[in-house]
């Protein structure tokens, strides 16, 4: 049964060393929760971006919370490269597992379906295959002339996290057309969600909302965090703050600048010093 908690208790549910699945920036990133994780000094995370990362991933990496990273890309988009990721990757501070968008989705779908692996075409011949010892190229097992395919081991996150405009009192969460959020929740052992508000109704009882709802069966805990995706955007509620993100991209180019950002934007939220 879904529980309703405060933000700090939600952050405490992410243990050190967890395989953490993080929604992409176009699918409602739980920035308030990311900041709470940094404040509690989470460490040794195995971070999975589904399928690409941005500001949230860069903050976690820069704060020293990430041990390994599996991602198709990490970027601040039009604001430029993600500075703390770039420095960590180039300096060898991260155990990198390069992947692709289809590969990450496919590996999560394997866990969603309860199988140990899933085949994917299109990767054969890529340099990525040679750099991934856990991917295996096999001939068409049905012998139908389909050619070789790559077998991807299932990815089962310990925890999946995202933000949403709303949940209901039954623990159901509105995701609209963002189906990657549903795949994450189906694949993960636990799903933690921050929301703008909780509504006293059941989304699954209404034809207008049921199809875009993630059932509470797949939601472990929910915390209300108004503005919880800022400075990123939330569809229908607020826009991405590009001035903030551009300023971050410049300030976080150095370790000292990144520390100033954390002190001001992360630790100052609760008055906690770094």
Describe this structure in words.
With 274 residues, the protein is an alpha/beta fold. 43% of the residues are buried. The protein has 10 helices and 15 strands. It has helices at 7-12, 31-39, 55-62, 83-90, 101-112, 127-131, 179-187, 207-210, 242-251, 255-266, and strands at 3-5, 19-22, 45-49, 52-53, 66-71, 73-74, 95-98, 117-120, 136-138, 149-153, 159-168, 173-174, 190-199, 213-214, 221-224. The protein has 2 domains: 3-101 and 155-269, Glutaconate Coenzyme A-transferase (3-Layer(aba) Sandwich); 117-153, no CATH class. α3 packs across α4 (83-90). It starts with a strand and ends in an 8-residue tail after the last helix. Helices cover 30% and strands 24% of the residues.
Please provide a brief summary of the model:
By secondary structure, this protein is an alpha/beta fold. The protein has two domains: 3-101 and 155-269, Glutaconate Coenzyme A-transferase (3-Layer(aba) Sandwich); 117-153, no CATH class.
